[in-house]
Queue: 3 jobs
Job 1
Amino acid sequence: MICKKPFGVALVSLIHCITAAAGLALPIEALADCDNTTLNGSYLFQDLWVNAQAPNCQFTPPSTINCDAVPGTNTVKGIATFDGAGGAVFNLQVRHIDRGGLTTSTISGPGTYAVTPDCSVTMTLPTGESSLFLAGPSGNFFYETDPIGGLQPNENFLGFGIRGG
């Protein structure tokens, strides 16, 4: 059996695909049993967001094309600490590169998270922004699952967290 899935497919789908290929097809509930206690402790966090929008180009006949730079890249890194009960504390550094250059900022303070039985995680940062992630059933890692095309057209996300010591 060949399993082909687009980039950003949930880990649970991958596990289901592997078990089906091995003749061990199980209901999804048997593969993951997560709740808020799945994420507990401090995680090293890294996130990359790219706006892959086509550049704004102007054509001047007969043969001149002028294009603006492609806008928008954010990187976020730092530590996210989860209490096992839906509360989180974030200490993150943000770097934003766009047509105006490089800016840096921080996101620090309390936030929330909710883990569903299929290990989907919704995190809300101190800024009020929310993202969808997927936790490994062991709780040792999580990764961002916003698909290519993201929340807005042309957005691409890659994010993950790994439990520290």
Job 2
Amino acid sequence: MAVAVAKTAHAASAAMQVQSPITVTSISGGLFMKRAFATAAVALLCLASIANAAQTVSGKVTKVRDADTVVVKGVPIRLNGVDAPESGTKAGNEATAAMKRYLRGKTLTCELNGERTYDRWVGVCFTEEGNDIGAVMISNGYALDCRRYSGGRYRNLEPAGARSRLPQARYCK
């Protein structure tokens, strides 16, 4: 009779494995579930700490891609609310050159908002002196405020005539 019970329990266990592996492991004992729960909890804590640590990036500028994207310590950052002309255009090349001149040798602190666009994190970057580099590019006429993402915080910095001189991305209108 014990053999028949063992075979029946084994068959029931095999049937449960196909339908729900979690149910089978809970039948075989709570130790596995405790370990799985502990591992999941540790993984969530690690992910949360990584996310919190990644919200601020500080370091030397390693590359200026264009007037609204910089790389700091290997992290590409898209400046939130800044609409600069595309590289390859006259205005875009001028804006990129201005950003390179302005950031040469500088250390930035970038506050990331957790969003990504393509391979870039989105954020606002400040020089050691506390200057918002996006605001500097806009106030010097190299970029426009992208109200959709900035909430209009840079609009009053745009010099007269900037909107008629610089093209604005469709997604900013």
Job 3
Amino acid sequence: MPEKADQWMRPPAGAGYDPAVAAVQKADHTVDLAGFHECESHDGETHDSQTRDGETRDGETRRLLVGQTARFAANFVRWMEGRTCDGLSYSRLRLLQALHCSGPAIMRDLGEQLGATPRNMTALVDALEEAQLVVRRPHPTDRRATLIELSEAGTQAANQALKPSLDAMAELFSSLSAAERQQFSALIVKLTRAMGPGQGKC
């Protein structure tokens, strides 16, 4: 069966053949064909695959999605990193964008806006401060708080780099139709909510 599956997936002569893509397709195809195989129970009884436990099949499909999503996430991070300039990663661009659009803010508010932990926000601000793109200033009314704001160089970087860099990262989604982009966005929102606090714990 594996040989037949490989032949079924291999494109006609002259067409491009990507082994990595074929491997994912083969995994998909294996799951699709699972319902057409016969299985033998422990007592030797053979059952038609259509009587197979639907819960088991559903579990296989969900596990396949875990692998596909993990590969996509890793590849997408590499895609974004390959389209950054001047060392401005996506997270740094987002921070510059937040300060550029909304003005100075305390770190806690920035962390909530960007979905970053306090530890990650500290590291992010430290890196941008070292690059002289942001500065820390005392809060005018709260002695315990510190304001983060763009430096002159940070403002210039935001004006020059934000749109081109984000547009380069967004180029990937030009391969989707408008309807597909809306559907993808809705699914991302739904899955993000499913990963909220208290969800999916062992």
